[in-house]
Amino acid sequence: MPSESIVIIEGDITRQNVDAIVNAANTSLLGGGGVDGAIHRAAGPELLEECRGLHGCPAGEAKITSGYRLPARWVIHTVGPVWRGGKDFEDELLANCYRRSLEVAVQNRVRSLAFPAISTGAYGFPLQRATRIAIREVRAFLETNPAIEKVFFVCFDSYTRNVYESVLAEDV
Ligand code: AR6
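Above: inputs. Below: predicted complex with AR6.
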């Protein structure tokens, strides 16, 4: 896997020109704050209409919709775990979010996608721990799935970007 298939950027995920963006949703899939709210605002009301037909999503799973008014053709909605101290399968559930989002991407012939820092906002997952899981899962997936050409980690602020860059540089 060429190392340049993983790219860390600072910015707004709703502005990314990729095949699919990933939403850090909740189990209702009916919108919320944070990146979820930003994606619904940018995509327009048709996104909520389509989400109503999905009947929710459990933590660790992923479901796909159209991107409507977004530059991205697709939105892959995944539900991260709420941080409860680390003994409630939060690591495993977060890893599942990345893995399942990538699997759904491949099933829909997505070649480029962008992830936000799932669970690290309202859901309180410690950022560095979450970032290690995110990068580990994406790296492992790309090694066996050449159909995905590029994965962007879109960091909303410079602090998050710095954490992602230092984790990416860690030896694994
Ligand atoms: N682009 C990229 N990243 C963003 C954007 C954006 N436009 N806006 C926020 N972030 P959060 P969670 C970052 O809270 O922790 C919602 O209400 C943010 O700075 O959006 O998984 C859902 O409906 C942080 O780094 O998601 C759920 O109820 C990251 O996105 C709940 O929040 C994730 O923060 C999910 O909580």
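Residues 12-14, 24-26, 32-36, 38, 80, 116-123, 154, 156, 160 surround AR6 (CB under 6 Å).
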